[in-house]
Specification:
By secondary structure, the protein is an alpha+beta fold. It contains eight helices and seven strands. A four-stranded mixed β-sheet has the order 5-4-6-7, with helices on both faces.
Length: 230
């Protein structure tokens, strides 16, 4: 009974400390993402790692011998397991499963060339600039193994949808490399795939250009917000 009280007390204390750290330090931090799983900040994820570490120590803690009356041999594992449970629960305050928001890509007019043809993306950018709207140009290919993750966990993140509402979303399909080779080389400096380019309302390119499946969501959000400014 005493051991369980120690475990409960340690768990409540650890959860309280974790809750305080989450409240104070998680705001504005870069999220830690593993595919569909996300912790709001590195601190939240660190709490989970620490919980596993303490749990492992409690697991390998030497069992007391029959005549050992030392309180530490009875309280140690209970304290550590209570702390690990409290920290693990606190880490899930910042945990979430990332959903995928629908992306409304620009469509070619009926009978007109599609966005798998070089030059169509440039016409769409010109039309967006004439309408005073920011534009997002995304290069995709069917053989690109990282593009699906980029769309799913990057630009498809629900956190970005409010800032994307004003954007013209252009998805250039460069699966046919031979058809696009000259355009990609001359106009876009041979971008790796996937690549995302953001243009403001005046048609000016916003830096940086985002490439690769791994990207900073905060940096992407900041660039999109800059491009959407009047």
């Amino acid at each position: 009974m005493i051991r369980e009280l120690w475990r409960l007390g340690a768990g409540v204390l650890a959860f309280g400390i974790g809750f305080l750290l989450h409240t104070v330090f998680s705001s504005g931090a870069e999220a830690v993402r593993f595919r569909v799983y996300q912790w709001q900040s590195p601190l939240d994820f660190l709490l989970l790692i620490l919980a596993f570490f303490l749990s492992a120590i409690a697991w390998i803690w030497p069992a007391p011998v029959a005549n050992d009356e030392a309180p530490r041999n009875r309280r140690g594992p209970a304290l550590l397991s209570g702390l690990s449970l409290g920290l693990a629960l606190a880490s899930f305050l910042g945990f979430e499963v990332i959903g995928q928001a629908p992306l409304h890509w620009q469509k070619a007019a009926p009978g007109a060339p599609g966005f798998d043809q070089p030059g169509v993306e440039l016409a769409a950018l010109t039309a967006a600039r004439a309408a005073g709207r920011p534009a997002l140009l995304y290069f995709h290919a069917d053989w690109c193994t990282s593009c699906a993750d980029f769309e799913r966990f990057g630009i498809g993140n629900p956190r970005l949808q409010s800032v994307l509402q004003d954007y013209v979303l252009i998805r250039a399909d460069v699966t046919d490399v031979g058809r696009w080779q000259a355009t990609l080389h001359q106009r876009y400096a041979d971008p790796p795939l996937p690549t995302l380019r953001i243009y403001n309302r005046r048609g000016l390119l916003i830096s940086p250009v985002f490439s690769g499946a791994e990207l900073s969501l905060r940096a992407l959000e900041a660039s999109l917000a800059e491009g959407a400014r009047p």
